[in-house]
């Protein structure tokens, strides 16, 4: 499997200027490639593909000598990003329902919107405490842990006025010791997660805690004159608050996912459409903000990656009626108790079961997940017998 290793870079002022220059040139190439495709399609009804645009790079270097300061594979990656953007656009057009507005056309990048460039097969070398980059030199880096496996790509990214090196490596999967334990997880807003064993994890609400500080910093930013040094400093304050929220979320979900993967051999989660829930017109604005703050999507992504790397079984079940059905592993009536979102207790009029709503949902989730596991095992045994 492939795994990313991210390290902080500490470039000198001259190197930082050179890195910013590379980003600016890559952004110009990206915008030119997008404009080329758009122009040709409007004129002839056909646009150039990835290979045609890649072949144009050596010709562009002759008329634009500054492009020689960028590694050839980095420029090819810029063209690849344009191609991927158009592929995604065509997929959205094909999947868009009739009568709905057409998906947005790939946009050109403004200043500050192009924040990374990639080396694919060369242009860099790694030493004990530094990273040597093409035409930039030896950049100080802190390797707080060793790089594992075979390096496939190196991406240099600028985020909140800081520079990072992201190595994408192909590593050998090392499974943890086998575990027969299983767990069901119901994510929520009052509690970040309720487990089928009855334990809960408090929702940290990182954005809510920083909301006042962020609003104050944004108001100060809006009062500054465009292009002034004070506006640049105010923008840094806003970006640092966003970075602090992002880092705390990242640390929280990684630690929780790691605890689950280390202990349980089978982990059952809901297959939630978080994006649809947030953008649903029927969802209140306050509720949508809380859903985004809970970072369910990030948790699912991290949990999937860690379960795959540890060879654990991760099962997804449909979330429909998990909080309404009276069904637990010990056996209950299965009666469906309709309830509003504000009702936090499951009380079954048929069998008399009284249980926390989220705990009942977690028990239903693990029950459905174990059923799926049993069915897949039986199907595999049947196929082997055939």
SSE diagram, text form:
Blueprint: E1 2-10, H1 13-44, H2 50-55, H3 57-63, H4 72-95, E2 116-119, E3 124-126, E4 130-133, E5 137-141, E6 150-159, E7 162-170, E8 182-187, E9 191-195, E10 200-202, H5 206-223, H6 229-263, E11 266-270, H7 274-279, H8 285-294, H9 296-309, E12 313-317, E13 345-347, E14 354-356, H10 357-385
Parallel strand pairs: 8-11, 11-12
Antiparallel strand pairs: 1-5, 1-7, 2-6, 3-4, 4-5, 6-7, 8-9, 9-10, 13-14
Defining traits:
single chain, 386 residues, alpha+beta, Nucleotidyltransferase, domain 5, 7-stranded antiparallel sheet, 5-stranded mixed sheet, 14 strands, 47% helix
Entry summary:
The protein is an alpha+beta fold and 386 residues long.
Structural commentary:
This protein is of the alpha+beta class and about 375 residues long. The protein has two domains: about 1-170, no CATH class; about 180-200 and about 250-385, Nucleotidyltransferase, domain 5 (2-Layer Sandwich). Helix content is about 45%, strand content about 20%. It has helices at about 15-45, 50-55, 55-65, 70-95, 205-225, 230-265, 275-280, 285-295, 295-310, 355-385; strands at about 1-10, 115-120, 125, 130-135, 135-140, 150-160, 160-170, 180-185, 190-195, 200, 265-270, 315, 345, 355.
Tell me the strand percentage band: 15-25%
Number of strands: 14
The proportion of residues forming helix, as a percent range, comes to: 40-55%
H and E order: EHHHHEEEEEEEEEHHEHHHEEEH
Q: What is the global morphology?
A: globular
Category from helices, strands and their pairing: alpha+beta
Sheet of most strands? 7 strands, antiparallel
Total individual domains:
2
């Amino acid at each position: 499997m492939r795994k990313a290793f991210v390290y902080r870079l500490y470039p000198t002022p001259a190197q930082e200027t050179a890195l910013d220059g590379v980003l600016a040139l890559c952004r110009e190439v990206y915008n030119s490639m997008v404009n080329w495709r758009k122009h040709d399609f409007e004129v002839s009804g056909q646009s150039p593909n990835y290979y045609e645009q890649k072949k144009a790079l050596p010709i562009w270097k002759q008329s634009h000598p500054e492009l020689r300061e960028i590694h050839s594979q980095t420029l090819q990656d810029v063209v690849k990003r344009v191609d991927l953007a158009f592929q995604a656009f065509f997929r959205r057009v094909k999947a868009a329902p009739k009568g709905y507005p057409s998906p947005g056309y790939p946009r050109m990048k403004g200043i500050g919107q192009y924040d990374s460039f990639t080396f694919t097969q060369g242009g860099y070398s790694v030493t004990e405490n530094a990273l040597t980059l093409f035409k930039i030199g030896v950049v100080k880096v802190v390797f707080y842990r060793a790089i594992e496996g075979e390096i496939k790509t190196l991406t240099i990214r600028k985020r909140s006025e800081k520079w990072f090196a992201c190595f994408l490596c192909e590593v050998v999967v090392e499974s943890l010791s086998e575990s027969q334990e299983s767990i069901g997880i119901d994510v929520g807003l009052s509690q970040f997660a309720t487990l089928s064993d009855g334990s809960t994890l408090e929702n940290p609400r990182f954005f809510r805690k920083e909301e006042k500080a962020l609003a104050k910093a944004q108001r100060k930013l809006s009062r500054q004159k465009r292009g002034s040094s004070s506006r640049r400093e105010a923008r840094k304050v806003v970006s640092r608050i966003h970075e602090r929220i992002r880092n705390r979320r990242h640390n929280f979900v990684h630690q929780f996912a790691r605890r689950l993967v280390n202990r349980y051999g089978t982990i059952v989660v809901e297959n939630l459409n978080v994006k649809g829930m947030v953008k649903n017109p029927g969802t209140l604005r306050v509720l949508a903000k809380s859903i985004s703050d809970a970072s369910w999507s990030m948790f699912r992504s991290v949990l999937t990656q860690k379960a795959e790397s540890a060879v654990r079984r991760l099962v997804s079940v449909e979330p429909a009626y998990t909080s309404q059905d009276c069904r637990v592993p010990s056996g209950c009536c299965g009666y469906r108790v309709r309830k509003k979102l504000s009702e936090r207790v499951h009380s079954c009029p048929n069998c008399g079961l009284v249980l926390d709503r989220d705990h009942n949902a977690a028990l239903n989730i693990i029950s459905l997940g174990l059923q799926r596991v049993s069915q897949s095992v039986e199907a595999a045994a049947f196929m082997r017998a055939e």
